[in-house]
Amino acid sequence: MIPRHLLIAMAVLLVAVTAMTVYAWRMRKTAATSVATNDTRPLAPPVAGPTERVTLFVAFDEDGSLRAESAQIPMPSGRQQRAEELLRALLSIYLDKNSPHALGSGADVRSIFLVDPGVAVIDLNAAFADTHRSGVLVEELTVASLIHTISVNTPGVSKVKILVDGKQRETLAGHADVSDFYDVTAVNQLAAQLQSGQ
To answer: What angle do the packed helices 79-94 and 136-153 form, to 10 degrees?
Structure first.
C-alpha cells in the first residue's frame, strides 16, 4: 500500500505540471498573437538619395487640427518616388503607437502617379481604408493631411485623386468622398483653417 502523504504529494505535483502546461500554452498563444498584430506592411527597399528637409502636415485628432512638422528624410531623385517617400514618412508618424492620428495596422501607400498637367493620383492599399476609423472629421483630416503634404512639397500639383488598391471608392471609411478629384487650392484653404484652429 502506498502511504497517504505520498499520494497527496503525487497529486500536488500532477496539478502543478498541468497548471504549468496550461500557462506555457497560453503564453505561447499570446506571443504568437502579439507578433501577428505588429506592422504588416511589406518592407520597402532602402531609399537612395541625399536626405532633405521636408514639411509634413500631421493631423491631430485631439483638437481637429493640422500641424506642420519638419522632417529630415532620404529623398530619391525621381518626382514620383519623392512624393511616395513624403507620404510614407507621414504614415510612419500615423502608425507609431503614440500617434496623434492613428491609422490601422498595415496601412500604406501603394503608389503615387504624377500625371501632367498637375494631377496626382494617390493609390492606398486596402488596409488603409478598411481599418480607417469612420467619422467625418477623422477622415477629412486624413485626406487634407495627405493632399496638403503632397502639394506643398511637390510643385505644380493642382488636382489629386485617391484610389484604394487601384480602384475607385465612394468614401474613405464611410464619410470622406473620394469618388472625384480634389482641388488642391480648396484643400490648401481647408488646411490653412485647420492649422489656425478655426
So the answer is: 140
Q: Is 139 within 8 Å of 132 (Cβ atoms)?
A: yes
The DSSP line for 134-182 is P-HHHHHHHHHHHHHHHHHHSTT--EEEEEETTB--SBSSSSSB-SSPE
DSSP label of 1:
-
User: Minimal CA–CA distance to 150: which of 99, 90, 61?
Assistant: 90
How would you label 57-93 residue by residue, b for 16+ Cβ within 10 Å and e otherwise?
A: bbbeeeeebbeeeebebebeeeeebbbbbbbbbbbeb
pTM: 0.71
- Report the alpha-carbon distance of residue 61 to residue 79 in Å, rounded: 30
**Residue written as grid cell 469612420:** 134
Summarize pLDDT for 81-131 with one digit per residue, the tens.
888 999 999 999 988 888 888 888 888 899 999 987 899 999 999 888 888
Q: To the nearest 10°, the Cα dihedral for 72, 77, 81, 86?
A: 20
* Contact indicator for 73, 49 with CB cutoff of 8 Å: no
The full set of domain ranges for the chain reads 1-38, 51-196
For residue 122, which phi and psi values (nearest 5 degrees)?
-100, 120
